[in-house]
Amino acid sequence: MQSLLVRKEPRDAGDAPVTVRLPWLGRPLDQVFSTEVESQEGRNATLTASTATFDTMSRYKEKPWEYLTSEEYLEKYGERPVWADYRRNHKGGIPPQKTRKTCIRGGKVCGNPCPICRDQKLGLHHQNVKLLEQFISPYTGEILHPTRTGVCMKQQKKLTEVIGKARDFGTWGMTGYRCETLTIDPSLLRPVQH
């Protein structure tokens, strides 16, 4: 069994350093931990520091469309769609015909999660039009197939519902997807020679 070693430096020259073994948690730690007994002011400062990162997550959870304009998003994805650089590992030379049912099973994220499941700040919401546009074909206005985007079936179903909701609420503009008929001037065509 693996364990995590935490080393506490001595306060005075006479104290010996203390090493504490913690069982390996199998996931990254989300909170700030300290082995020292702190005063009330120090504890409040530590709690404020740990809730500051939580407030950032909750802000994007309440308003996910703000994440797409943030510097963090532009650094991570640039101008490309979130699914552009996604590649799922699979066994053999032929990729699977369907994407997986879900990326999160029993509260644990599987290996190579889909583009929506791997970034928790990407929230599917009917007002998050910038994100929804990435999953719609610019030529036909139809939702892209999950094998092209790599989205799991659970998120694809949610994506379809959210896009329908955006169209119902009017946050999704349907302009630019009409197919116009092509008219050709017959005088410009060459006559067929027999």
Automatic annotation (TrEMBL):
It is found in: Mitochondrion. This is Small ribosomal subunit protein mS40. Pfam families: Ribosomal_S18. GO terms for biological process: mitochondrial translation. Belongs to the bacterial ribosomal protein bS18 family. Mitochondrion-specific ribosomal protein mS40 subfamily. Signal peptide: none annotated. GO terms for cellular component: mitochondrial small ribosomal subunit. The keyword Oxidoreductase does not apply. SUPFAM superfamilies: Ribosomal protein S18. The lineage of its organism: Eukaryota, Metazoa, Chordata, Craniata, Vertebrata.
